Amino acid sequence: MFTQSPENSTMRSPFDSDLQPCDAKALLDNEAEPVKTVLEGVDVQRGYGLVKTEDGRQAELATVAVEAWHIKEHGEEELPEGSLGNLHEGDAYVIRWKYSITTLVGKRQKPGELSVAAPGRERIACFFWQGRHSSASEKGTSALMTVELGSHRGSQVLVTQGKEPPCFLQLFQGGLIIHKGSRDDSSNSTGIKRWIQYVNRVPAQF
């Protein structure tokens, strides 16, 4: 029903009085902080490109190699290169990321005026990814293996399904396929390919 304002003849809805302008500042203040993944004192951001070193200098981050292992109840199995990025929600995996950070030098520290210094040292980060339906035994084994792989150097990072940081997704060129069940179940199936989630939250690196 519409009512007529006594001040003028304009027809208006009785719901007009309930409308209030939104507070844009409040919305911006509540905006979530970007996720940071700090490895050996460096925020690796998306896992490639320009980053800042521990002392604040600009550097170039590049992937050297990616290896992955499927964790089983009593051991592990290294994944072939063609299977990287195909994970199962009923499993746990360890992914070892080898990367380098090379310091850039230049008069004004601007991207267009920077040159590459001597190649940076190779670094290692081990992620243990846990599917939401992986067993407690598999989670424990993946954690132990991660510590063993990075016992001498590197970082260990826990990644749970659905909360993968950008640098983790970049290991698979920006894409990640999460299948139902476990890898062993799918290998014994009749060839029907089942998958439930395709994650692609960051652009691939070319």
Automatic annotation (TrEMBL):
CDD domains: gelsolin_S4_like. Coiled coil: none annotated. InterPro entries: ADF-H/Gelsolin-like_dom_sf, Villin/Gelsolin. It comes from the Eukaryota. This is SVIL. It comes from Ilyodon furcidens (goldbreast splitfin).
